[in-house]
Amino acid sequence: MSSNANPNRVRTVAFRLTAWYLVLFTLAALALMFIAHARLRATLRQRTDADLVEDLAELEALYVTRGITTLQANFEREAASSGIENLFLLLVQPQGKILASSDLKPWKDVVLPPKSVGPLLPGHIAHQILTGPGREVAVRMACKGMADGNNLFIGLSLAEEDEWMKIFRQILASAMLAMIVSGGFMGWRLAHRAMDGVKRVTQTALQIGQDRLGKRVNIGREGQEIERLAQAFNGMLERIDSLVKNLREVTDNLAHDLRSPLTRLRGLAETTITSDSRPVDCSELAATVVEETDALIALLNTMLEIARTDSGMHQLMNAPIDVGALVATTIELFRPAAEDCGISLKYAAAAEDLTICGDLARLQRVMANLMDNAMKHTPCGGTISLSVTRDQGHVTIVVADTGDGIAAKDLPRIFDRFYRGDASRSQPGSGLGLSLSLAIVRAHKGDIRVESAPGKGSVFTIWLPKPNAAPQTPPHITNS
Ligand code: ADP
Predict the structure, then answer these.
(1) Is 404 in the pocket of ligand 1 (CB under 6 A)?
(2) Fewer beta carbons within 10 Å, N or C terminal of the chain?
(3) Which of 420, 456, 460 to mutate for ligand 1's pocket (most ligand atoms within 8 Å of CB)?
(4) Using an 8 Å Cβ cutoff, are 26 and 175 in contact?
């Protein structure tokens, strides 16, 4: 398996996650900055307006109590103390004539009242922003109608407010830059951490490519999704590992099973060639060749049949089958051989409807395999009992013998291809009978289980679903 050791960073999920995180983070920070900026400006403006209104009230009191001359002197003093370019003060008649004012020289570029404001009712206060051509700093103006009909104006340059806003913007900009840099770094770290699990899975997959199927991914703590990915991957490896082992075992067994007869055939042929062969020897050789090759063909055919049945390639017949009759016929077939060996055969069938839908020829093969095994492993004087019963959704066939039984270590493996118990090696057989039987029964959506104890015999139970029965697991059937 080849790996891209130096992947394009821009195409990595970690990079994309970080980029998305940065974009969203920057947009959120910008929106926050915009809102904070607007709020601060509004607050400063409110404070400026409140100060102007307070000043107007004081000036009005002065005008009412001390008259216009004191007001003029106050105007000049106030403007001088704040800076004449920062503050202007005016008392204007409703017709527009200026009665008193501070020094207006720096305000020539601004459209001053009364042109900028209409007539005001007594006690009424209005606010306005004044600008002038080329003027950088705006002016906030407030005016108030006096009881005698004159209007009092005060205008304040917003230079100070602008200065505060500028400082605030600088602080916000540096804070935002720091936040974006640290946020980007954190996003990069987090994305990398989240991807660590995926990297470990990839790493393990690459090592498996180097024929190390036993390797597993360590399940870390990067989060549930990654843990589940690692678990699923390990589960898949487990299955592949067992399949590969199984395949190796099958190949080894097959090679072994093919080698012995082929070696025998070769030996025979060699002996016939080297000796002064007579026609009678040749016909003996031919008979042996036919016998051995038939056995080999049967072995290969059984293997093919298991593979095809397992993969669903074999189309099963789907005809009604009376399971009671099927079992009775099988018993009759084996009865002569059983009598020869002194084995008694017993059969009990329920009196109810034992019909299922399936492939008669294949189910006959299953019964023949089970009966053949029972006969092989039951000594003379033993008993083989068969029974067929019906439950809610299925028909159950039980084949029980009083034979050798199966060793506990063999029990989980007897349905594996080519598996033969130690005690059976002296008996004829290929170790494929039970695998084929299980494949056929499973193709009928049923199951086979076995219970056995050495010296006490074995009980094979076949469970076959009845037509239209809801799928369910066989009750009370366990491999033990
Ligand atoms: P084979 O009979 O060709 O060896 P099977 O697949 O039919 O292969 O059976 C696999 C193994 O299961 C047998 O080798 C034997 O060890 C065990 N076995 C099957 N049926 C019985 C039985 N009724 N009693 C004891 N052992 C059995």
Answers:
(1) yes
(2) N
(3) 420
(4) no
